[in-house]
Amino acid sequence: SSELTQGPAVSVALGQTVRITCQGDSLRRYYATWYQQKPGQAPLLVIYGRNNRPSGIPDRFSGSSSGDTASLTITGAQAEDEADYYCNSRDSSGTVVFGGGTKLTVL
Amino acid sequence: EVQLVESGGVVVQPGRSLRLSCAASGFTFDDYTMHWVRQPPGKGLEWVSLISWNGGSTFYADSVKGRFTISRDNSKNSLYLQMNSLRPEDTALYYCAKDFGEVGATTTSFDYWGQGTLVTVSS
Predict the structure, then answer these.
(1) Which of residues 3-62 of A touch B (CB under 8 A)?
(2) Using the beta-carbon criterion (under 8 Å), do B47 and A97 form an inter-chain contact?
(3) Residue B2 burial (10 A CB sphere; 0-12, 13-18, 19+)
(4) B47-89 pLDDT tens trace
(5) Phi first, then psi: what are they for A4, rounded to 5°?
(6) DSSP-derived secondary structure letter, A19
(7) Using CB atoms, which residue from A42, A97, A100 is nearest to B115?
C-alpha cells in the first residue's frame, strides 16, 4: 500500500501563516483530506476535495496540491489551531492511508 | 444531530477475540460507507477497514487483513468490527467514522467520528 509522509512538527507565530505538507505517490491521482486533532478529542475534518471546507471550519484553512505533495495552509494562525494535523488519501488498492501527523505549535 | 457511539473495548489477552460496535444516529445510516480507524496511545491515526452502504464491499488494511471482519446491520443502524487473533500491536483507541461521500459513494473524507473505544491487548 502507499505511504503518506508528513513532517513531525512545525511551529508558527500567532497571526502568521503556516503550511503543513503531505507527500506521497497516491497524491498524484487523489486529493488529500486534512484533519485536525486536539488532545483527548476525535479528529475533525477541515479540508476535503480540491479545497473544500466543511461548515464551521474557518476560512483561514485552505488546501492545495502540486504533483505528489498536498498542503494545508493556515493563514493567520490562532492559538486554538494548535493541534495535530493528519492527511489521508486513497491508495492504489482502494484502501485508505493516513500520514503520520504533524504537530503544530502556535507561539 | 449525528452521533456515533462505539462500545466493546476492553483489556484482552493476545490471541483472543473481541467485537466492537458502533451505534449511529442522526443520519440515514444505510446511505453511507462507514469506516473504522484506530489510534495507538500517543501515536498517529491508522485506517483499519471500510464497508459500503449495503455491506457489499469491504476493504481492510494489510495489518488486519484475515483477522478482522467489518460488518453492518442497517436495520439497527449499527457498525461492527470482529477482531480475531488479537496482538499487542492492536492496542489502540478504535474510532468509527462516517464517510462524507454522497449516497453510495466512498471517499477518504470522514465527516463524523465517535469518541472511540479503547482496546488493550495484553497478557
Answers:
(1) 30, 33, 35, 37, 42-45, 48-49, 54
(2) yes
(3) exposed
(4) 999 999 999 999 999 999 999 999 999 999 999 999 999 999 9
(5) -120, 130
(6) E
(7) A42
